[in-house]
Amino acid sequence: MKYFENLEAIKYEGPTTENLFAFRHYNPEEVVMGKTMKEHLRFAVAYWHTMTQDGTDPFGQPTNIRNWNGSTPMETAKNRVEAFFEILEKLGIEYFCFHDIDIAPEGDSLEEFFANIDEITDLIKEKMDQTGIKLLWNTANMFSQPHFNNGAASSNSAEVYAVAAAQVKKGLDISKKLNGQNYVFWGGREGYESLLNTDMAFEQDNIARLFRMAIAYGEKIGHKPQFLIEPKPKEPSKHQYDFDAATTMAFIQKYGLEGDFKLNLEANHATLAGHTFEHELNVARSYDALGSIDANQGDLLLGWDTDEFPTNIYDTAFTMYEILENGGIAPGGINFDAKVRRSSFEMEDLILAHIAGMDTYARGLKIAAKLKEDGYLDKLKEARYASFKGDLGQRILADEEDLETLSEYALTHDTPALESSHLEMVKSRLNDYLV
C-alpha cells in the first residue's frame, strides 16, 4: 500500500518555483565548500513526532489525519514502518531516529515489548536493506512509564534501575542489528523534584554507572556507536541533571567519559536553558564534543518545548556556521525533532513541514559558507584580540608574565587603550549575508 500515492518524490526546482512540493533551496548535489549539501546536512527524520504524534495537546483531542492506523497495535506499528520509509524516500532523506516505544507496542510485559521490538526491527531492517536508508541513532524511552516516575538510572528503586538497564541493553542490540551510527541518552526524568529528599551525588553516580555498563556492553558485542547525551534543563522534571552543554560536559569530565560520549544538542532545549543554539554548539565544540543536533525551534513567547520545524534563517545560519567550524558533524546528523502544528493536520503537512525545514537549513548552510569564505567573523575576532599580538600580549600567552611583572607594567601604563566594537554596525552588515 502507498500512503502518499498522490505525491511524487520531492525535487529541487529553485527559489522561483510555485510548487509547494518542491525544494526551493535544498539541492542535495549542489557543492558548498567542497562537499555536497547532502553530505554537509545529513538530514534525519524523527519517528516519534512524524509517526506517533497525533495532535493532542493538554486542552484538546487528536486532530491529525493518518491513514496507517490498523485494527491492532502491531498492525499499526507495521503500517507505520511502511509509511515512514515512503516519507524518507519521497524527501530523499537518508537517516532516521527513534525511541524503542515509537516503533513497537509495549504490550503487557517487558518480555512482550522486546518480542514486539524484534518483530518490527526485522521489518525495519528489510526496508533499510531495500532502500539504503541508515539509522542515525536510536534511544530508549525511560521516562513515559509510571515506574520511571522518580527517574531511570537516577531512580531511588534498584528494580527500576534494572528495567532501565534492560532497555539500554535492548537498545544497543537493536543498534547493532540496524548498524546504528550513534546511541542517545536523554534523561527526561533524570533529575529531581525536591532536594529535601534527594541525594544528588548518589543519583549522578548511578547514572554514570549505567553509562559505563553501556560502554562495556557495546565492546562485548562488538558494536560501539558514538554515545551521545542530550541536555535539557527541565520538562518533564523540575530540574534535570543534564541542564545544558556546559553542565553535561562537567558530568562527562567528572566521570571520565570524554573518550566515549559527545553531545546531541537541540535548539528548543537551548532556549529553555536560556541560551541561543549557537551558544550550546560553541560550548560543545570547545570541548571537541559536538556530536549531533536535533533541528527544531521554540516559541519565545511560550515557556515550554514546542518543537516547531525550523524556519528561522538567522538561527540555521549560525547553527551551520558552528558545524562548519567543527569540520562537519558526521557520524552525527541533523535530525528533525519537530512536529507539525495542531492546525497542520493533513497527511501532506508531514511532507511540507520537512521541506520547509530542509530548505531553511540549506539557506543557513549557504549563508554560513559565505561568512567563512569572506572571513567576516574571523576578521572581527582578530581585530578584537589584536592587542595579544603585541609584545605584552605575546608574553602573556607564552606564560612569561606573572602577577608581579604585570602589576609593574600596569603601574606605568595605567590608561589602557580601548576600541569600540561598533556592534550595531557589525549586526547591520551581517544582515547583508542573511538577505
From TrEMBL:
Keyword list, A-Z: Carbohydrate metabolism, Cytoplasm, Isomerase, Magnesium, Metal-binding, Xylose metabolism
Reactions the enzyme catalyzes: alpha-D-xylose = alpha-D-xylulofuranose
Location of the protein in the cell: Cytoplasm
Co-factor(s): Mg(2+)
Main localization, broad class: cytoplasm
Binding site for Mg(2+) 1: 230, 266, 294, 337
Binding site for Mg(2+) 2: 266, 269, 305, 307
Cofactor details (free text): Binds 2 magnesium ions per subunit.
Cellular component aspect of the GO annotation: cytoplasm
Record keyword Zinc-finger present: no
GO molecular function: magnesium ion binding; xylose isomerase activity
EC number: 5.3.1.5
UniProt-listed GO biological process terms: D-xylose metabolic process
Active site: 99, 102
Family to which this protein belongs: Belongs to the xylose isomerase family.
PANTHER family named in the record: PTHR48408, XYLOSE ISOMERASE
Subunit text: Homotetramer.
Protein name, per record: Xylose isomerase
Record lineage: Bacteria, Bacillati, Bacillota, Bacilli, Lactobacillales
